[in-house]
# Entry
Amino acid sequence: MKFRKALEPSVNASAGTSKRPRLKASGNLCLGFSGGLGSSILLDIVHNTYFSSRPPLDDSGKPRGGTNHPRNASVWPSCSVCYVEVCGAFAGMRDQTEDIRSVIQRYPSFDFVPLRIEDAFDDSWWTMVSGSSSIPQISLELGKEGLIADGLYVASRVTGLTPVEALRSYLSSLPTQTAISSAVQNLTRVLILYTAYSRGSSHLLFGTSLTSLSISLLSSISQGGGYAIHEELQEEWAPVTATGSRLSGALRVVRPLGDVTAKECAVYAWWSDIAVVGRDKQRRAILGIAGLTKDFVVGLEKDYPSTVSTIARTCEKLEPKDAPSGQCRLCQRPMQSGIQEWKGRISIRSFSDDKLAADLTHLPSSSRDSLDTNSTPSELPPSLALTNFLCYSCHTTLTSRSSRGLKRSVPDVSSAAPLPTWVADRGGGLNKVPEEEMHDIVAEFLIDN
Amino acid sequence: MAPTSCSLCRDAKAILKRPKTGQQICKDCFFFVFETEVHHTITEAELFKSGDRVAIGASGGKGKTTAVIWPDMLIVLMADSTVLAYVMKTLNDRYNYGLELFLLSIDEGITGYRDDSLETVKRNQQQYDMPLKILSYDELYGWTMDAIVEQIGKKNNCTFCGVFRRQALDRGANSLNVDHIVTGHNADDIAETVLMNIMRGDIARLGRCTLICTQGEDTIKRSKPFKYAYEKEIVMYAYFKKLDYFSTECIYSPDAYRGHARTFLKDLEAARPSAIIDIIHSGEAFEVKEEIKAAQKAQQTCKRCGYMSSNDLCKACTLLEGLERGMASSVITDRARKKMDAMGPTPENLRTIPLFRSTPTITVEMPSQS
# Structure
């Protein structure tokens, strides 16, 4: 009941006027599958609720009344199950794709779509899901410590790495374990989003339980993701073109187990005899803030059992303060304006800022005399900097350092950090905008002769 | 290994790593960026106007007090408030804010915790050359925290202390006829409060806890100039300004839930120092939905003492009535309040809080001219 109550109000494209409208989605269904408890249950419930009941057949073996009869019409024409294998990100991790395949084979109505996390750096995957032509790989300049430079400047040289090498180079250039964990999660999410969209899906479901949802909400807030808190609960997503316009047919991302606690999921799985593949323990060790949040919430739940539901209920009552200024190039979520100005205002990181000129007169004369306000690198043209195209959370992921330094598990394979293909496709304003699109933008200002 | 040069002035030797940015900088640059960032916080938010009378709240923590020893005298204050007083005075002189500054301290009546410190606060007014006002719970409510804890025990005593302190600060500021109270709440405090309010579902407080300046209908403006200053940097500032400091915990502070939140925040900070500022950014980026705001209780004034309240009686009057009737432990929640109402009308001879804005003028101690 909780599952249907959470999912079905968002199935139809528009609410309509009927109190009990017939459920009919505008596209296919896609399930994000991790092999964990929530997604295993989601798979089972979706199958039993929407795909297992066969319509009555006539003598010729066809559905009685024809396939267009309302009784025989499915809510979604088809369902695909996307799994992203992350072993490419971590040396020594076991590939679980075949284990997952064997689980999904139990549900013959579902199509299995195996993905690999390194696909995010694979031109052929991008061509397949976006229909775009081949694009050059772009990279970010690394600073002297091998970490991504604060300015997030696009490096001039093309790296030419294999997808796995590019992935590992990207992850190894991230400054903290939290950033690595967050990057893996984002890559996984965006891979599934694009894949689901390319398969004509109108709905993408994740098996996030109430417990996992509360943990991810708190973790996201702790990483500066407050502006996109609504997207953490439920989102409507469509790819954005180089000109910033969204493609038609938004994909609804729903978490229908968002009212069911992890304990309830475990009981359901046990009673229903659902096999859970589980996730590799090695991945658990690098979780950073996400792992700390999980430990904290699960620990607090023992003494304060209502905490988990309170976090989710509180976040449901929030909305972003301002209208978005665009979509983040990296995580593809709405982006707030004025992020860099805010960061610059609350912490002084360089004396070269013009706004500081008047304040610098209050520096002790010994320091002021030796001051060279031009000693910091001059800013590159905006077209070569990615900073202004990232949301607060992604910018922080790439630039926020640990006080203890990074424990490197992957050796550097490049002096630049490659970026996922979807960033390259719109990378930092580097793309040439097609003439037709340019015309559309300026059309109302053109005078016909 | 060659000494690292300051990453800001690039000349002097770096002697510290800024907790907020991770940059290695020299002492002079640290003082400069710390003070200038506070100045920017004040000016961006347009907190003050020339001629404003501003009280610096020399109390206001969550059971946490840091004592500070100046070179030749002992000053026990919240370290945040001590540094705040110092920085406010410095910036007021440097940038000609034109503010009239006062020190305002609240005596909660906790033996061994606050009594000694108040003597040193009095000496502190001379150090800063600011008038000082001390208002006690005993004077205002007729109860000290010692007496409250004696009646209710340690459980929930932070609720009494927090509610009483907030109103006491407002009333103290009112008697000083100031326009503004500034408190030493720092970035760690605000991040912790954001997390706390999310975890306990306090939507009303979540909506306003990241605001730099709050003002009730009938109260004086309250601001947090250290909103973006890390606690570690405040202590660092006190340390490099040749102040020794030591910490002591309030003897009645068993707020376990806040303790969990604080520990969690420290873990987050250890994993990624920017977590504190990231949480504040999150808190500033969202707001409570309009339909939820509309359903919240409208602000009114307390029928008994005239202080702002969302019910007929303000929280302080409710708690005081519970104490006076010997039912203090049953007035923490609205439901318990109804239960107390059901047990009979309020006795006529009940001790109450003086009417707000009609408190008798209390003498303000001026620094001696010697």
User: Anything to note?
Assistant: Chain B touches chain A through 59 residues (CB under 8 Å). Chain B has two domains: 16-296, 298-356. The first helix of chain B runs from residue 27 to 44.
